[in-house]
Write a structure and sequence with these properties.
Layout lengths: L4 H14 L15 E14 L4 E15 L4 E5 L5 E7 L3 E20 L6 E17 L2 E2 L7 E2 L3 E6 L12 E9 L2 E2 L5 H7 L2 E15 L2
Antiparallel strand pairs: 1-2, 1-12, 2-3, 3-5, 4-5, 5-6, 6-7, 6-9, 8-11, 10-12
């Protein structure tokens, strides 16, 4: 008997959740279809305008997956990080960076294919603090952040897949908007940071189905 890719993914989720014995037992028609899977996640974002990198994680990606439709919601809380770049090629700037979740992570895993494809969207406010130019603090305050949340779409590359348990690589490109509440440094920050063409690359591994 031939099984569809979706059926194979459902079976794989069942096995991981309840043990290898479940592999021989069809999922009951009344069984819940939502499976919570937690992954290890770590990556990097490249900020185009400053030509600098920002570390993302390590952290835990939490997903609540409907294995019938492939739709999921979740969260990807990112620990505080930092960035360094130079103004005019010589004046060093350092700043702490926080990504504050503004909405739940949403997305879909296309389980109808043998090689599953992921598309998702994360939304954060980007906050800057402890900004120093040439070692001198700029006193941007504690409320310096993007005026509106930054939407970051990420997904699998067209020629790569995502494994429900082993994970995979997620990539995307996004735009950073204008900042506000940065004191007298608001014009400087808005001339340096906002812009398009920023990239993100996150490796997701070690999927564990929550009990």
């Amino acid at each position: 008997m031939t099984t569809t890719p979706t059926a194979r993914w459902r079976k794989r989720a069942a096995v991981a959740a309840t043990g290898a014995a479940v592999a021989l037992v069809p999922l009951a028609a009344h069984a819940a279809t939502i499976v919570t899977i937690n992954y290890d996640a770590q990556g990097t974002s490249h900020i185009a305008k400053t030509n600098s990198d920002v570390a993302l994680g390590p952290t835990t990606l939490r997903t609540d997956l409907d294995i019938d439709t492939g739709d999921f919601t979740g969260s990807l809380p990112l620990p505080g990080t930092s960035t360094e770049f130079k103004i005019a090629g010589f004046l060093p700037v350092k700043a702490n960076v926080d990504f504050v979740e503004a909405a739940p992570l949403t997305g879909n895993i296309n389980l109808t294919q043998t090689q599953a494809q992921v598309s998702s969207t994360a939304t954060y406010y980007v906050k800057l603090s402890n900004i120093k130019v040439a070692g001198f603090p700029t006193f941007a305050g504690s409320k310096c952040q993007t005026k509106v949340p930054v939407t970051i779409p990420v997904g699998t590359r067209p020629d790569e897949g995502f494994d429900l348990i082993n994970g995979g690589e997620l990539v995307g490109t996004y735009t950073i908007g204008k900042f506000e509440n940065c004191g007298i440094n608001t014009p400087l920050i808005n001339s340096l940071v906002p812009g398009s063409g920023n990239t993100v690359d996150i490796t997701v591994t070690n999927g564990v189905i929550a009990e």
